[in-house]
Specification:
alpha+beta; single chain; iron-sulfur cluster binding; 2Fe-2S_ferredoxin-like_sf; 2Fe-2S_ferredoxin-type; (2Fe-2S)-binding protein; 5 strands; Beta-grasp_dom_sf; Ubiquitin-like (UB roll); about 20% strand
């Protein structure tokens, strides 16, 4: 079973139990607070994640991600958790702009 490790959340492991479901689904299933202003619809970039290792284990860019990449709002190392699925292990971080004020990050 793939695992998403959130490095700046004290290496929090999140098991990917339903491979067809988004990373945001699994983050919420693990009861981790994660910014997602549009409700996981791919209409904003608040649910961004910065991939440190394992980009090859993430689904291809969605149309929404490509649009934001073209606009310069999504860096090459960033993906939208509401749009991606994982096929293998990934190590990632919450980008500074997406951190929630009530969460302690490592």
């Amino acid at each position: 079973m793939p695992t998403l490790i959130i490095r700046n959340l004290f290496n929090k492991p999140i098991e990917i139990t339903h491979p067809a479901k988004s990373a945001l689904y699994h983050i919420q299933l693990a009861t981790v607070d994660w910014m997602h202003a549009c409700g996981g619809k791919g209409r904003c970039t608040t649910c961004r994640i910065r991939v440190v290792e394992g980009m090859q284990n993430i689904s291809h860019l969605s149309a929404a991600e490509q649009k934001y990449r073209n606009q310069g709002r999504l860096k090459l190392t960033e993906r939208l958790t509401c749009q991606i699925t994982l096929t293998g292990n990934v190590v990632a971080e919450v980008p500074e702009a997406c951190k929630l004020p009530h969460i302690t990050y490592s």
